[in-house]
Amino acid sequence: MNNVTASLAADRTRQLRAAPTVLLAVAAVAAPFYFAPFQVFQLTMVLLYAVALAGLNLLVGFGGQISLGHGAFFAAGAYSTAVMLDRYDTGHLATLPVAAAGCFLLGLGFGVPALRLRGLYLALVTLSFAVFLPPLLKRLEPVTGGSMGLTVDKMQPPAWSGLAEDQWMYFVVLAVASAALLLARNLLRSRVGRALRAVRDNEGAAEVMGVRLSLHKTLAFAWSAMFAGVAGCLYTWVIGFVSPDSFSFVLSITLLAGLVVGGLASLYGPLLGAAFVMYVPSVSQDLSEAAPGVVFGLLIITVMFVAPTGLAGLPGRVLGAVGRRLPRTTAIPDRTPEAASAPDAEPRPTAAPGFSPTPAPADPAVADAEPVGAPPRTTEKE
């Protein structure tokens, strides 16, 4: 009976956890038919930022490593796609695996410093990568177009779809983002994800348990860079234009801030962080055209004060606060069910306070015997 009850409770828990995902999927499919083209464009940008943050979440949230150069991998995927479309007249869909594979290899090579560096030192090295990449792109003018950037054709919807350009682009990005988020979820539930958690929590204990630190640290950078490259490819598809100034080090800091605000080590954190990255700067611009950065920083401070674990952990924090405020009533039964159902037994005699009866020995020899461990008796001769 207990096993059946536990199984039913587990099924109900899984259903409750799956309900938000189902509702979110239905809303995502119906969204482009109820919003204006610009709002559909904003939702498309949220989806591609969510792909980049999902990769950053693997590295920072579950791997425990700090990266301030994620925007550089994002730029690498965007520029590789733009160069293939502009210089080599490649199809849009063919650029996606190339951008993903190229950034994966780039992440493998860049993951080597992660083997010897950690903390602020690793953050400084990754930040340097994000700082020197835009000037490098400007100097490679024959390939990247220099400071002027590259303009490419956007993906056009097929005639059979009956969709507008913004709607078709939204569904394409939604399909790629769904596949990327599902891949990230499966990675975290696999042996790789368990190894990343072990390395994050305690490297020494993880190594004793047989986890290869060098392999999994490098793979964390590689997977993270691959997701960023995919997001950069989608960015080129959606915008149709790339330039070095679009991928400054501010982008890397913004992505990291969005992940922290959304929620580290959370499956819904990248989506919430992507919405924060997309909408909050525009809201800050509307509130204060003179100093939008000040408003943006104050909003981040406010969110961190209200939800220290990120927006993904805010519902649990609210429910916990409500539960602590509810009155608690505990009733102590007079008799246990076993005692209530048992027949009345004869009461045992109780001794008076301060008196402990000792049974009289039956054998005089035993009564005259010395207790164990007592000192030997001494008799004085009169």
TrEMBL record:
It is found in: Cell membrane. The chain crosses the membrane at residues 16-35, 41-60, 67-85, 91-112, 119-137, 168-188, 219-243, 249-279, 291-314. Keywords: Cell membrane, Membrane, Transmembrane, Transmembrane helix. Residues 363-376 have a biased composition (Low complexity). It is a multi-pass membrane protein. Its main location: membrane. It holds the Pfam family BPD_transp_2. This is Branched-chain amino acid ABC transporter permease. InterPro entries: ABC_transp_permease, LivM-like. Residues 330-382 are annotated as: Disordered.
